[in-house]
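Lab notebook, design round three. We kept the backbone fixed and only want residue identities now. Task for the bench partner: fill in a sequence for the structure below.
Input structure tokens:
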């Protein structure tokens, strides 16, 4: 099925109706991942993981309030809270809701409070305060913001004495393939809903990196190319030894950005300025 050029007036009306109108102001799109909040489960505090994580909640809040304005959009790319259910995440989600701008949340592997099948209920519960991205999309100017949690095989890998990979757990790899397939289907749903609404410009968000340390491409990079995404933004990779596990920079005409909190030292990355 071919999709024509989006009707500018229709998209503008959609944006005004859903997110308000900001006349004469330039908007910006920011992204940041892996807040790993634990206000109601202090035993899960990230302070034990080194200097960059100490009081990271305060660092993130300070940077976000300095950078993000009410007319801006902030995409948070998963691992929002250590709470195992919604009742144990209330303070964490309220902390996020208090940030300036429109806040769009993506699922992370530690977000136990968020059942993908109940995304609509979360959007109802936090209507006009938080926007949950799963099997849907959100508009930013003439772009569609699409995404899913994603997945990639992370081992274990077996090394020789020189640190070279000589094998891996094949049973876990087979399980990972099933999860990758499911997440790819969810991502395609997000892209297709945006296309059906008339969008042709896309920014794609994942929680997991789009490739693992063995891959040069994946179903996620190929889908980004298929739909003509301009950028792919992801997180999940923690610690200097993991920051370069996947693609950073330009690859096949698409810009890839890592926005893990500790990588950015909790200063949101500007993805677009319009």
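Proposed sequence:
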């Amino acid at each position: 099925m071919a999709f024509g050029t989006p009707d500018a007036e229709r998209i503008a009306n959609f944006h005004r109706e859903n997110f308000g109108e900001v006349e004469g102001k330039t908007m910006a799109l920011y992204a940041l991942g892996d807040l790993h909040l634990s206000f109601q489960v202090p035993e899960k505090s990230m302070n034990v993981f080194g200097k960059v994580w100490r009081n990271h909640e305060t660092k993130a809040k300070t940077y976000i309030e300095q950078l993000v304005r009410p007319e801006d959009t902030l995409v948070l790319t998963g691992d929002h809270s250590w709470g195992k259910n919604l009742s144990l995440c209330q303070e964490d989600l309220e902390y996020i809701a208090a940030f300036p701008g429109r806040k769009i949340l993506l699922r992370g592997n530690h977000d136990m409070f968020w059942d993908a099948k109940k995304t609509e209920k979360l959007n109802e519960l936090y209507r006009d305060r938080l926007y949950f991205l799963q099997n849907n999309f959100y508009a930013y100017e003439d772009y569609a913001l699409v995404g899913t949690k994603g997945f990639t095989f992370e081992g274990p890998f077996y090394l020789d004495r020189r640190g070279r990979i000589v094998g891996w757990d094949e049973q876990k790899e087979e399980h990972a393939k099933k999860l990758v397939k499911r997440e790819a289907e969810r991502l395609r749903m997000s892209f297709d809903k945006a296309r059906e609404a008339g969008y042709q410009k896309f920014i794609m968000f994942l929680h997991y990196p789009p490739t693992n340390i063995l891959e040069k491409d994946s179903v996620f990079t190929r889908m980004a190319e298929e739909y003509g995404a301009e950028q792919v933004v992801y997180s999940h990779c923690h610690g200097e030894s993991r920051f370069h596990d996947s693609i950073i920079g330009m690859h096949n005409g698409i810009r890839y950005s890592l926005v893990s909190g500790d990588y950015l030292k909790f200063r949101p990355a500007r993805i677009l300025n319009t």
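Keep this in mind before ordering anything: The helical segments are 8-19, 56-67, 90-97, 119-125, 170-196, 219-227, 261-264.
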